[in-house]
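[Q] Does anyone have a clean structure-token version of this?
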Amino acid sequence: MTRDYYLQKFRTMLKIRGLQPNTIHTYEGVLSVFLQFCFDGGIIPEDLSDDALGEWLAETKSESLLKQRIGTIQNFYQFVLGIPYKCANFPSPKKHYYKPDILTRFEVEAIFSSIKNKKQLALISLQYYCALRVHEVVKIKLSDFTKNYDTRTETFTWDLKVRGKGGHDEIIPVQPEAIKYIENYYNSLDGLPDNYLFAGQFAEFYSTRSVQIIMKRQMRKLYINKKGATHILRHSRATHLLQTGASLKHVQQLLRHKSSKTTEIYSHLDKHDLRIAFTKCDNTFFSSVEKLQQKLIEEKRTG
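[A] Here you go.
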């Protein structure tokens, strides 16, 4: 059996499972590295020992990559080779929780103000206000927007259909601020977009790489030294909503997380929140001490 034979069988299995093209591409890449490891050692995958597989997995430095490798190998052995329990004796990698970098609201406004291209500004603002992933925002179509009339507020509102992870469609509200940027961009066009709202120069839609370059350029220009490029917009929007009183449940709906535990990484206290809490505590403490001192002084005077 050749490496290409195994990859083709694996690809067919993933298509039968109904996985999205991006997911299939990721799994294929992981399996390709694994098969290269096997054939470099002169071993066919069916004959690979658990010890050799364990040593290969143990060399993985990244926690997320290790999870990908275990999941890919497990699916490959179970559905392609008919060996269902190949990874049963390997423990799941320990999950480490991290605090993502976020932009302050001042930094978000500074980035918006520094972008002069109307298409780029509309794209970046839509990604922020709707907390979209970069591959979601570039594939937005005009037909994904729906205009409604809210009888309670007697105003027009906009909803957006987003195709997220796993190919699931969700409807989320679009803030008027984002609509304003989109209308400015739309009115500047000579002709209507053929399909995607943000058409690319050499492709149907704007490339995710181009969006990342735009954000990195603006952040460098404004001396914002934070990690995340475009995904930092999603992190920032979620955190800003929580800071201003939105419930964790509502933020979870906007981010389209299946589990609230995934959303909880945004409920961390930042330095600003801690500073407010410390200030309130210190003011209460020291004002109480001051009142006690004044009371003692009064008692001495009257005693």
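[Q] Thanks! Anything notable?
[A] The CA atoms of residues 110 and 222 lie 8 Å apart.
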